[in-house]
Specification:
By secondary structure, this protein is an all-beta fold. It has no helices and 40 strands. The N terminus is likely disordered.
């Protein structure tokens, strides 16, 4: 963690206690960037790539920021007579923290997050302020090895336009004797909270036991060798075939955790388990916090995304559910301060017109407002592909996703069976973007990025690394994302 900044003429690391303030020019610093009280009166977060990714939008020379005794973060004018902006939080005895993951979070006295800027840069393996994409690659036969690769985001060659995904960088390599790629389920997240993305894989073993391994992201954008993060003996609650992992900071402590949707074929039970993370990136003993009523949820009818939709500093789990003849409905499982999950309420969004089988959901803050949104890549019956984005909104005091808005028209240029997609902030501007690995008809594999505008519409595609024909095995590549 970066040291020393100016707060009240004191030297701190990355937090404010109640009553402390940031004078003009003062800042908090973490591994992912800096929070600065700018001389013009704007309180802003700048990422490691130098982009402003969040601000209060305030102005006035001499203005300052203060964490009030009641836990409300405010920006006040120079005379201290008017509030220019406030977080509207109540957290007496708490603190303000700029985490190494890049979130500005207000915690209460019980260390529970109550508000967040939601400025984490997803999947940033090298910590430069731009998202990257990690991948597990199983070399096609007759080769007998697996490897991890990273596609690092960078500016487009010869320009300042960022968001292009470069050639894969190889790191960990192992013989296939150690890994059964077909029995691995991977998720990406910052599990040790150092500001760099890591990879966790659940591995089903031949004796029916399950082992979780974590490979930590390193400063050069590669992954360290996987180490054991958790294990379950055979014959117990867990079997790899029942488990669907998701990643997110579910308890708001500044480290990503793992949630597992467990649909037990033997008992017919569906449960949500939370594996909170340790500072090492390994996991504590999992606990179950939600259990579905008998025969009410079918795993074969669920598609998952995770995100901090309500802006409280804890990420939630959203389920796109195939609701029989009623169409597609989107439910959100809220998170509790301990990382457990609450029962889902009414659907946040639904459509009777869309075919669940043709919809691929994704999550991200596509308009940069501090709340994650959802989008769906949809394959229409005429062969066209489009993305529709549903922005987070609050209506009559209730959280929901708004109306679907077409944000990218892929026309008939893509075959959904020949693409893999991951969302992230690939240009580092504070808005999440969409990237795909595309297996082209000429047998070349290409990375393409669509960066998001402030209205959540997407710019034109940026072509990144492109393989030679037949030189990269698309079918044996698993891209790392926060959700399965």
């Amino acid at each position: 963690m970066a040291a020393a900044t100016r707060v009240d003429d004191l030297t701190l690391a990355s937090s404010l206690a109640p009553g402390q303030l940031l004078k003009p020019g003062g800042m908090l610093v973490s591994a992912a960037g800096a929070l600065t009280m700018r001389p013009d009166g704007n309180l802003a977060i700048t990422s490691n790539v130098g982009e402003t990714i969040w601000s209060t939008g305030t102005s006035g020379a001499g203005s300052f920021a203060r964490l009030e005794a009641n836990g409300n973060l405010v920006v006040r004018n120079a005379a201290d007579t008017a509030t220019l902006w406030e977080s509207k939080t109540s957290a007496a005895g708490g603190k303000l923290v700029l985490t190494d993951r890049g979130n500005l979070v207000v915690y209460n006295a019980q260390q529970q997050s109550v508000w967040s800027s939601n400025t984490v840069v997803r999947h940033d393996v090298n910590g430069d302020g731009r998202s990257d994409i990690g991948a597990w690659y199983a070399y096609p036969k007759p080769a007998v090895s697996d490897a991890m690769y990273t596609f690092l985001a960078k500016p487009k060659e010869g320009t300042t336009e960022a968001g292009v995904l470069g050639a894969p960088v190889k790191s960990y390599t192992s013989s296939t004797d150690k890994w059964n790629e077909a029995a691995m389920k991977n998720v990406a997240g910052d599990f040790n909270g150092d500001g760099r993305a890591d990879m966790v894989t659940l591995h089903g073993n031949s004796n029916a036991s399950v082992t979780a391994y974590v490979a930590l992201g390193q400063a050069d954008g590669t992954f360290a060798d996987p180490v054991q993060a958790w294990a379950a003996l055979p014959g117990g609650e867990f079997h790899i075939s029942y488990m669907t992992p998701q990643a997110g900071d579910f308890n708001g402590d500044g480290r990503d955790d793992m949630a597992v949707w467990s649909a037990n074929a033997a008992t017919g039970e569906t449960k949500l388990f939370t594996f909170t993370s340790k500072p090492s990136g390994t996991f504590n003993t999992p606990f179950a916090s939600w259990k579905a009523p008998a025969n009410s949820w079918a795993r074969s009818s669920t598609k998952f995304v995770t995100g901090d939709f309500n802006g409280d500093g804890r990420e939630e789990l959203s389920v796109f559910y195939k609701q029989g003849t009623q169409g597609l409905k989107t439910y959100v499982f809220g998170t509790l301060p301990n990382g457990g999950f609450s029962d889902p309420g009414l659907p946040w969004w639904e459509s009777a017109a869309w075919d669940w089988d043709n919809a691929i959901p994704q999550a991200g803050d596509f308009d940069g407002d501090g709340h994650d949104d959802v989008l769906v890549w949809y394959s229409y019956d005429d062969g066209a592909d489009r993305t529709s984005t549903m922005l987070f909104e609050k209506v009559d005091g209730k959280n929901k996703f708004g109306s679907a808005k077409v944000t990218l028209d892929g026309a008939k240029n893509y075959d959904v069976a020949r693409i893999k997609m991951v969302t992230g902030d690939y240009n580092g501007d504070g808005r999440d973007d969409l990237a795909i690995m595309n297996h082209r008809a000429d047998d070349k594999v290409q990375m393409i990025t669509w960066t998001a505008k402030s209205d959540a519409m997407f710019n034109g595609g940026l072509a990144g690394w492109t393989s030679n024909a037949g030189a990269w095995s698309f079918s044996t590549t698993k891209l790392f994302s926060s959700y399965n």
